[in-house]
Amino acid sequence: MNAQLQATGSAYFIPSEKELPEPRTLSVLVDNEPGVLARVIGLFSGRGYNIESLTVSETEHQKHLSRITVVTRGTPHIIEQIKNQLERIVPVHEVVDLTLRAVELGHDKPIARELALVKVAGEGDQRVEALRLADAFRAKVIDANTGHFIFEITGAVSKIEQFIAIMGPLGLVEVCRTGVAAMNRGAQGMGPGKF
């Protein structure tokens, strides 16, 4: 009996996964046609992978290409599985693990930004404090009356999270977030012709 069989007690050796799940940002270039987004989301849900953030928009009108940015969490093995399965979907042109590519290019992580609209209701000192903190976070007031403000804030996900947490005790009413838009530093791009 070989050492693997003795160690596992089985003729089938399945390596145990010792790596911890980590957040990863994937960028998927697809044809802009009906049903593509549903197929991409179906791949995630059908295999039990969670999507933490999802954004999609047409990026090349003449070529009818859309870019889907997905933030998910998984071990390197799981992320590689997701990438391989996404690449098998017919209208997918390219799948890039932006987190891994950033490391390969010598950067910590990809450039990632999110936009949020944050409604805060308050009066008196709370109102003044909300305005002061919004200014510190470079959030813009896009709607206001005597009872509330709606702030627009753009930045890294951690900045958005911190702003929302700080506004909580001051009268946070509602939050609407766009999800992450991301790309890597450097001259290299994605897609046909690397536009």
TrEMBL record:
Catalysed transformations (reactions): 2 pyruvate + H(+) = (2S)-2-acetolactate + CO2
GO molecular function: acetolactate synthase activity
Its EC number(s): 2.2.1.6
Domain ACT positions: 25-100
Gene3D superfamilies, per database record: 3.30.70.260, ACT-like. Chain A, domain 2 (3.30.70.1150)
Transmembrane segments: none
Biological or metabolic pathway of the protein: Amino-acid biosynthesis; L-isoleucine biosynthesis; L-isoleucine from 2-oxobutanoate: step 1/4; Amino-acid biosynthesis; L-valine biosynthesis; L-valine from pyruvate: step 1/4
This protein's UniProt keywords: Amino-acid biosynthesis, Branched-chain amino acid biosynthesis, Transferase
Enzyme class: transferase
Pfam families attached to this UniProt entry: ACT_AHAS_ss, ALS_ss_C
Physiological role: Catalyzes the conversion of 2 pyruvate molecules into acetolactate in the first common step of the biosynthetic pathway of the branched-amino acids such as leucine, isoleucine, and valine.
Family: Belongs to the acetolactate synthase small subunit family.
Subunit description: Dimer of large and small chains.
Protein's UniProt name: Acetolactate synthase small subunit
Originating species: Mesorhizobium liriopis
Annotated gene: ilvN
